[in-house]
């Protein structure tokens, strides 16, 4: 059987920060369980915001010419998406939000054109979230969770798991939380299973 294919996206603007470290742990687990994983760092790409011109209403494709096209094709093809992001002002960082908003074309495909993205055989499409926030406040992850839930729904993926950790702020703070890194490993393992 074909291995499960996973796209792992680090959306933090800070390289090798807390959420990228969590992502790397989940990627290592998924690879060790036989998945085919591609990790990308969003800041290496040029993905601008949605311009609300509604050109995607014509055929479910975005007409803005930047690197979004690369993500569009990958989102169509992969079995799993694992997105890692810090909390910024109780929400997803702007870089991740730009990518999410550009997926309005998938929203058009699904809800206006009634075209769904099929699972590959019996491998159900699934999405996962890894997140960190610097403070310890109630509802820190509510915004991120809501955006990602709706995002994965639009991509015909089940929101299948998350690891969210608060009070992790400075670069490297995550290393003081082996339990969280273990949870990220377990999430990666789960993402590799069909
Ligand atoms: C612009 C900005 C906004 C932030 N807003 C929040 C917030 O609302 N809640 C929170 O808990 N942490 C907030 N933080 C802290 C980060 O979420 C935290 O440092 C996180 O560990 C960064 O993860 P990274 O190293 O993967 O980028 C903010 C940081 C920045 C730079």
Description of the molecule:
This protein has 194 residues and is an alpha/beta fold. The chain has one domain: Flavodoxin domain (Rossmann fold, 3-Layer(aba) Sandwich), CATH 3.40.50. Helices cover 39% and strands 18% of the residues. It contains seven helices and five strands, in the order βαβααβααβαβα. It has helices spanning 18-32, 56-59, 68-77, 94-102, 104-112, 142-154, 178-192; strands at residues 5-10, 36-41, 80-86, 126-132, 158-165. A five-stranded parallel β-sheet has the order 2-1-3-4-5, with helices on both faces. Helix 6 (142-154) links the parallel strand 4 (126-132) and strand 5 (158-165). Helix 1 packs across helix 7 (178-192). It starts with a strand and ends with a helix. The protein binds flavin mononucleotide. The site of flavin mononucleotide (FMN) has 20 residues, from helix 1.
What does the secondary structure layout of this molecule look like, with pairings?
Blueprint: E1 5-10, H1 18-32, E2 36-41, H2 56-59, H3 68-77, E3 80-86, H4 94-102, H5 104-112, E4 126-132, H6 142-154, E5 158-165, H7 178-192
Parallel strand pairs: 1-2, 1-3, 3-4, 4-5
